[in-house]
Amino acid sequence: MEKIIINESPKLRGKIEISSSKNITLAILAGSILINNKITLINIPFIKDVTLMQSILLQLGAEITIDNTGLELINKVAIIDSSKIYHSVVDYDIVKKMRASIFTMGPLLTRFGICKISVPGGCAIGVRGINLHLDAMKSLGAEIDIVNGYIFAKASRLNGAKITFPINSVGATENAIMAACLAKGETLIENAAIEPEVCHLCYFLQKAGAKIEGAGTRNISIQGVDNLSTPLEYNLPPDRIEACSYAIAVAVTDGDVILTNCTEDDFLSSREVFFQIGIGFEKVKDGIRVFKRHDFQSIKITTAPYPGFETDLQAQLMIPLCIGSGISIITESIYDNRFMHVLELNRLGTDITVHGNVATINPVKYLSGANVMATDLRASFCLIIAGLISKNRTIIDRVYHIDRGYENVINKLKSCGANIERLL
Ligand code: EPU
């Protein structure tokens, strides 16, 4: 089985290019189902989840042109022709590998009036329901049945309606927006998610001819149109979680790196936390310079929807706190099981205790390498960060998790001096 081997590394120095956002790319690929024409996506990241979403589109009948060698993309341009889509079934085989497959429900249902999509099963980071997605489709007039593990949704044409979300959900907001684009009349979404991922999906759909107002606010209104068929080109923006993950990795090694292809906006929801604990970032000519400002300080934080501190950075943030001063407390408010990395970190000598959704981090003098297992995407990057500062050798197993969302991670870190290899 493939493993990542990391030896204690020097201060990271150099440049790292940030790839395009995984979660924006996934939403936009789902959104492309709505468009009865060719679209061009620039800067598409070569990561497993994006490949899986592309295979869903291919199975539905879309044509996709991407030049790649199997190992890397030749250019980062994908041309997708969804006018060729002829059926609307998404099988268990693919949904079980990626929850974001559910994002195809809104677009398929609204474009074809019918779809059959496997219900996503369990998830390593907690119970992640799909009730909000289903309720949104029902509000728009869909009939929904769940039979043999599949969602059967139908409606001759969806009707615009008011959808009020009880909590902020990125995916359910995205599904509702996509469904409403081709519904009859106006849809008003209240308590919508305001993450940049939702905004970019809206900008993309607007370019295709969708009538959406209020992206980035809690109230989004959509005037349904008969079809979306304007061909378009969309530049996929940087991955803010990837940028912040590297900032943490650089800071814990006391390094100094320029992250290219990202902006200060990508640090918006982590800037306060980074400032308080001692991770520095500043705009420079080529991008964003990241470094350690001072010895890491303790913090008490709760993960929250945007613009609060991201759950997707919670695991990575633990590492500076483990080697800082004072006791830190992290409350995970989005997922109910996103502390799986703690047991692995404690194998490296950290002193973290978890009670329910609260982790208490007692700093230690040093970490020491061991065999550890990645439990999910963000946990795997957290273990890599830990490996960079652990004495001796850290061996990370189940590395397929990292391939889901961090493009070319080994080479990016190596180019800045990290002692990291992938063992095939
Ligand atoms: N929720 C429900 N019912 C639903 C939908 C969501 O109870 O029908 C709950 C979830 O269980 C969770 C909360 O609502 O407790 C928020 O989940 P949300 O729907 O916002 O998450 P998502 O859309 O499934 C996206 C990202 C996640 C990221 C979350 C929160 C994608 C593909 N995934 O998931 O990214 O953690 O938003 O920001 O966009 C990651 O990249 O590592 C990752 C997990």
Highlighted features:
single chain, 424 residues, alpha/beta, four-stranded mixed sheet, binds uridine-diphosphate-2(N-acetylglucosaminyl) butyric acid
The total of beta strands comes to 26
CA(first)-CA(last) distance: 7 Å
- Give the neighbour order of strands across the main sheet: 23-25-1-26
Rg from alpha-carbon coordinates: 21 Å
Helical content, roughly? Answer: 25-40%
Mean pLDDT: 96
Secondary structure category: alpha/beta
Unreliable stretches:
none
User: Based on CA inertia axes, which overall geometry fits?
Assistant: globular
Beta-strand content bin = 25-35%
Major β-sheet annotation: 4 strands, mixed
Bound molecules: uridine-diphosphate-2(N-acetylglucosaminyl) butyric acid
Number of H/I helices? 14
How would you describe this structure to a colleague?
The protein has 14 helices and 26 strands. By secondary structure, the protein is α/β, with parallel strands linked by helices. The strands form seven sheets. A four-stranded mixed beta sheet has the order 23-25-1-26. Helix 8 packs parallel to helix 10 and helix 11 (340-347) runs parallel beside helix 12 (377-389). The longest helix has 13 residues, at 48-60. The model has no long low-confidence stretch (mean pLDDT 96).
